[in-house]
Structure formats: C-alpha cells, structure tokens
TrEMBL record:
It holds the Pfam family Pkinase. This is Protein kinase domain-containing protein. Residues 1-181 form the Protein kinase domain. PROSITE patterns: PROTEIN_KINASE_DOM, PROTEIN_KINASE_ST. Gene3D superfamilies: Transferase(Phosphotransferase) domain 1. Residues 207-304 are annotated as: Disordered. Residues 207-224, 289-304 have a biased composition (Basic and acidic residues). SUPFAM superfamilies: Protein kinase-like (PK-like). The lineage of its organism: Eukaryota, Viridiplantae, Streptophyta, Embryophyta, Tracheophyta.
Length: 304
C-alpha cells in the first residue's frame, strides 16, 4: 500500500475520532486498532465495533473510571495502570495504528527479536532521530514520500505515544497536522509523479531497429515456398533439376511465377478428370482411360 493511501486512511480515521470526541457528550472509543477500521473501494476509512465505547467525562470530571478492557498493545499505559479513561486514551491508540502504517509492522509481533516484540517500545525512541527514522520506515514505500512529510508525520506519531496524557495532541490537532502535510508542495509533486509512473504499458517498443528485425525474420523463414514450386518440375533429360535452377527466378520474372523448366499439363476436356493436384500437373493425361471414347464394337454381331 503506497504512502499516500496510508496517510489517507490515517486522516479518515482521525476525523472519525475527532467527530466522537467533539460531540455534545463526548464518546471515548476505547478500543481503537487497525482491525476496527473499515475501508471502502476508494480507501475511505470508517470506524466500526463500538461495543467498548463509553461516554466521556462531564461537568468537572477529568476522566471516567472503568474496568480495563481493550486490546494489548493499543491501550494507553495510564488506562492500563489506573483504569482512568479519557479522550487522550484514544489518541494513544491512534498513535499505535499510525506507527504500524509508518513502520509496516504489527503492534505486537512475537516472531521478531525479543527487544522488538512491542512495536511502541522499540520504535518510538527512533522517531525523533532522522537518520534512524528512515532506516525503520517501511521499505516498500521508498520514493513515495518527501523527507519533510515523513519527519512531520513521525513527530506527530511520537507525540501521540507520549507516556504523559497531557503531552498528547487532541484529535483536532492531529487532523490539522495531516491536512497541512497533504498540502505541502513536496507531497503534491510526489503524488503527481506516482500517478504518472502508475500508467499501464500497452506495448513495448522493440529495442532493435525495425530493419534489423525484418532482416532476422527473413533469415528465419523456411524454404517451404521455394520447395513447393519445384515439386511439380519434371526432370530434365532423366536428371533432377538442380536446386539453383528451381529457386532462381529468371530475369524480368517475379518469384511467384513458375520457372521456365516447369512444364504444366492442363487436363483437356477429353481426360477422365480423376487425376488431381500435383499428379495432374506432373504427367499428361492418358487417352486410354477417357470415358468419352466409344466402346469397342463386337464384330461377331455383324457377321451374316
């Protein structure tokens, strides 16, 4: 999945959380993860599975106390430790999903080395080091993003994953940052370049010149045509006609015309018509087998 598509999905999901948090009575999603983001044919993100959603704090409340529920690797650390749920808890979960999109790995992957099992613990410190950042970005997106845009998105992800809830941005700030990144001239140029390079190749121009290709085809053509012309050539003086005489055209004649040595015999109306094809051309018709000849007369019938 290209960089532009991943950023489009992230922005769509961020707008969904922004809508929930900005309601008259805010709603905390509580279980934000990649599997709860649905995509349509145009990769527009939609949030699903609101089974664990809770209404946010009201009045003078700063948080909602509830039993810890959610998915390991996506839940905010303060929520796991205290059970205190706020809108910033969803921001942390969004940061985990954004990190998955940037790095191209799952939040928890036991198949990795032990120090890389937890994606946040391993990758978050590297997001603020530019040289290390470009080493861990998904290599499948190489050349699809600008350096400035990648650094800006990585910085946003780093703040979303802050251990301190107050150090995380609001979802409105997240949406604003994504919109600014997409409007960067560098991002527009790369997006246009990717669209141009994504065209379909209808045919490939031959690498060799046309004259060379035609010459090679002529060399590879079988000699069946010249052999077919010489099949009906009768022998001369009891000896086969040399190959050079069969295939070499005379002056002023095209190759399609029969050579001078070729004697064509056309059956006359008096022939039996049984000889066909090359046999009829190779030998003259026989008068002995004609059906138009009168039958022999029995002389005994006329004896007195």
């Amino acid at each position: 999945m290209p960089w532009s598509t991943r950023m489009k999905i992230a922005l769509g999901a961020a707008r969904g959380l922004e809508y929930l948090h900005g309601a008259e009575r805010s709603i905390i999603y509580r279980d934000f993860k990649t599997s709860n983001i649905l995509l349509d044919a145009d990769y527009n993100a939609k949030l699903s599975d609101f089974g664990l959603a809770r209404t946010g704090p009201s009045g003078d409340q700063t948080h909602v106390s509830t039993r810890v529920m959610g998915t390991y690797g996506y839940a905010a650390p303060e929520y796991v430790m205290t059970g205190h749920l706020t809108a910033r808890s969803d921001v942390y979960g969004f940061g985990v999903v954004l990190l998955e999109m940037i790095i191209g790995r799952r939040a928890v992957d036991k198949s990795r080395p032990s120090r890389e099992h937890n994606l946040v613990e391993w990758a978050r410190p590297l997001l603020v080091h530019n040289r290390k950042l470009f080493r861990i970005i998904d290599p499948r997106m190489e050349g699809q993003y600008s350096t400035k845009a990648a650094i800006e998105v990585a910085s946003l992800c780093y703040r979303c994953l802050s251990q301190n809830p107050k150090g995380r941005p609001t979802m409105s700030q997240v949406v604003e940052t994504f919109e600014e990144v997409q409007s960067m001239p560098e991002c527009q140029d790369i997006l246009l370049q990717n669209c141009m390079t994504g065209s379909v190749t209808l045919y490939e121009v031959p690498k060799e010149p046309v004259e060379h290709v035609e010459t090679e085809k002529a060399k590879q053509e079988p000699t069946a045509k010249t052999d077919a012309v010489a099949v009906g050539v009768p022998p001369t003086n009891g000896k086969p006609v040399p190959q050079s005489r069969r295939t070499r055209p005379a002056n002023g004649r095209s190759k399609s015309e029969p050579p001078l040595e070729c004697k064509l015999y056309i059956p006359s109306p008096d022939s039996d018509g049984h000889q066909l094809g090359l046999e009829a051309l190779a030998s003259p018709p026989s008068r002995n087998s004609s059906r138009d000849d009168p039958p022999p007369v029995d002389e005994d019938l006329y004896k007195i």
